[in-house]
Each structure stands twice: as C-alpha cells, then as structure tokens.
Amino acid sequence: MKASRILSVTALALLLVAGAPAGKSTPAPQWQIAGDLAEACTCDPPCTCNFGRDPSPHNFCYAIYSVDIEKGRYGDVKLDGLHLAGGNAAKGNLWYIDERANAQQETALKAIATQMHEKVLAYWRSVDPKIVEDPQFRHLGFRKARITQTAGEKSNSLAIGDAGSFQSDYILGIDGKTPVVVENNWSWNIQHGIKGKTRQLRYKDEFGNQIEAQKSNANQGKVDWTDQTPLYFR
Predict the structure, then answer these.
(1) For 26-52, how does the pLDDT look when each residue is reduced to its tens digit (9 = 90+)?
(2) Is residue 82 classed exposed, middle or buried when 0-12, 13-18 and 19+ CB atoms within 10 A define those classes?
(3) Which residues contact 182 (CB under 8 A, 6 or more apart)?
(4) 177 Cβ partners below 8 Å, 6+ apart?
(5) Measuring CA to CA, how many Å separate 8 from each of 94, 119, 170, 193, 230?
(6) What global pTM score does this model have?
(7) CA–CA separation, 86 and 205 (whole Å)
C-alpha cells in the first residue's frame, strides 16, 4: 500500500515469548495462511496506489480488508476457516480477529498481524523514516468481530461486524464476461488481482476513523503468505 494508507504496528513480543524462562527467548513459530483477500479503498478504480502512484482522486487512500483463511497454521495451531481483517484510515489501523477464534487462535492471529506490520514499517522506513510518523501508522489495537466475506464470479463483499462493509462488482473486460485482472499488484501481494468497483464502502470505529465511498476501488485475489514472505502489502 502507498504511504498514505500504510497500517501501523505495535510489538506483541510478549505473545511470542509467553511462557519462556526469564533471560531466554523462544523463536517465533513458523506460520502460513492461504486463502482469499478482499479489499476496498477510497481511491477511484483501478487505484493508482496499486500501480506505484499516489492516491487518486484524494490525497489519501483509506481501506478495509480481510483474509478468508482456507488453510492456515501458526506453529501447531490450526487457523483453517478463520478470518483476519482490518480497517485503516486517518487515525490509524485497527485489526479485527474472527470472533470464532479460540484463545490460542486469537494469540496466533495477533502475532501474524504484528509480523505483517513490522515488515511494512521496515519497508517504509527504508524509503523515508519520516513516513511512519504519519498518524495513519498508529496501531489502535485488536477487536473480535463476526467477519463475513464472499467471492463470487462477478462480485465480492466483506462485512466486519458493525464496523464496516463493502459490496463490489468486478470490472469486466472487452468481452463483457471476464473480469479485469492485474498481475503483480504493487500494493498487495495477491495472485491474479481482480479489479472491482464498489457499490458501497463504509467504515467507522471508536477512534474517529470513518470511511464513506461509492464507486471506489476493490480488489479480490488469492494469498499464500508465510513468516518468510518478504512483504505482504505496502
């Protein structure tokens, strides 16, 4: 993602070393999540951020997103069937953990989200350390929510509890049947990124973040991320 929409990060080191004897560290477990990513933002389609440019038509790009984890694990903790979602706007980023996650799965998803943030911040610090001083980088915490995500032949959608949602229609190519696909998306590490246009996009949280948009950009694609993936989004 572009700097104007980058998520913030806070260390969850205690989660990664919980139970370790004093003075010793425990290596973070290996992890993998594979499934569908759905995302929508405030940019006009096809989102200039996705092509390495500044946001358009605004000077910001706010977004909500979710990964529907078809197959996943964090060490020995299985994550199949769960969701990991987020909302990012001017006040910072708030992560949403699937309300069905048990205590171990919740801890695992928080640790995965943290590692994603750390890599994003490391990338932008390498570009310009001042970028990460933007309030949008703030980590606002975690919430549990009911997360509903769909991916059809012509549309996709996402609902994050009462906090936000979007519904989009895929942008069809010249044949009138096949969606437009972007390979090697600049912002999101997704396979065969399908481009969409939202019917409606909304988001609001208790920290003052708020998004209201229509006919804005949406993405749909497959992810296969691990703890060794260099970069998940920017």
Answers:
(1) 788 999 999 999 999 999 999 999 999
(2) buried
(3) 46, 50, 193, 195
(4) none
(5) 9, 11, 29, 24, 17
(6) 0.88
(7) 11
